[in-house]
Request: fold
Amino acid sequence: MIFTAMVVFCCSTLSADTPRTAPAVAVVEVESSGDSAGAEDAKPAKPDAPAPKLASAEAKSGAGGAGSSSSPFVSSPVQPATADSYETPRKRMIWYGLVAAGHGTAAFDAWTTRKAITGGYGVEGDPLERPFAHSDAIYATTQVTPLVMDYVGYRMMRSRYSLFRKFWWIPQTASAGVSFGAGIHNYRMVH
Reply:
C-alpha cells in the first residue's frame, strides 16, 4: 500500500509535457604522470543538482500563459483514501472507555441475574439468555451484545457519513445503559 502511494505521488508530480533528459556525464581528466597513486585519487565529478520544480513551473507558466498544459490536473483538494483519517486519538480513547463500560456492565448484569435466579427471586426475561441463566455460561453470552455494539460504534466512528460520525457513541452507550439498568433491577430484587 505504501509503495502504491509512492508511485501515485511520484507519477502525479511529473507533467506529461516535461521532457525527460538523460543526466550529463562528467568527464574526468587524469594526468598520466606514470604513477598509479594519482589515478586512485582522481574521482569522477558529481552531477549538478536538478533545478527546483517551482522555478521551472513558473518559467513555463510565464512563457505559456494561463492556459499552458503544465497546470496541475487536479484542482480540487485531495480526499482521504480511507476512513482512517476520521478517527482521532481522543475518539479512540473514548471508544476504549465505552468498551470497558459496556463489557463491565454486562458482567454486572450477568452476576446479578445469576444471584436473582439462584435465590429464587425471578426468572430470566430474555428468551435468548434463558437457556444459559442457570449456568456460568451466562457470563459469556451476555458479552455478545456489547461486542456487537462495539463493532457498530467503531464502524460508525470511521464512517464516511458525517451523521454516523457524529453519533458513533450511541450504540455502546445504549448497550451499557440497558445492562446497567437490568443489573440494578436484579440487585434491588435480591437485596
Notes: The CA atoms of residues 77 and 187 lie 56 Å apart. The longest helix spans residues 89-118. The radius of gyration is 34 Å. The mean pLDDT is 79.
